[in-house]
glutathione transferase (Camelina sativa), 221 residues
Amino acid sequence: MADEVILMSYWPSMFGMRTVIALEEKGVKYEYREEEDVINNKSPLLLKMNPIHKKILVLIHNGKPVSESIIQIQYIDEVWSDKNPFLPTDPYQRSQALFWADFIEKKLFLCGRNTWATKGEELEAAKKELIEILKTLQSELGDKLYFGGDTFGFVDIVLIGFYSWFPAYQKFGNFSIETECSKRMTWGKRCMQRDSVAKVLPDSEKVFGYVLQLKKVYGIE
């Protein structure tokens, strides 16, 4: 009997992008269900499958829900372990991959959001912190093709969804990531050459338009 895999997400979500890329990398057949209004009109299935957080992103595998994107990527890697492993088998290297994924999870989203949702001193602080975060990640990347070395892996999947948001961060924050973190941007372009990434990440102009809508909804001038 074939696995039934359903992913409930929302197209601008960098967290949702992660999980779709993971499924694509593994060659898993899945049904994608777009949640069109994740703020005011959440679907009954979403509320049923994620009763604790009541939000996207939800992966449903044979009727059982798995929440939170990093957990989903690990789950996908373990269930479909016969192709393209994401995490290293070496315990230490595995721990390092999980550390950097956690670093990205805790640091990047809020700081990125503040580049378009704040002004004045708060915005300047957000820009400075974002560049510092990206420089730290660039240092970890070093001269490697990907964070795991020669192969596209766990940390790459966790981080790459933000790549489509970087132009919006730069435009609203009036700064350049390319100037400060050229290796990081080269890494992003390399990842975009993968079919799994190119078919999933939205156009940056579309993301920019979405951020304009968010600013209007939240009354941010």
Summary: The domain at 5-79 is CATH 3.40.30.10 (Glutaredoxin).
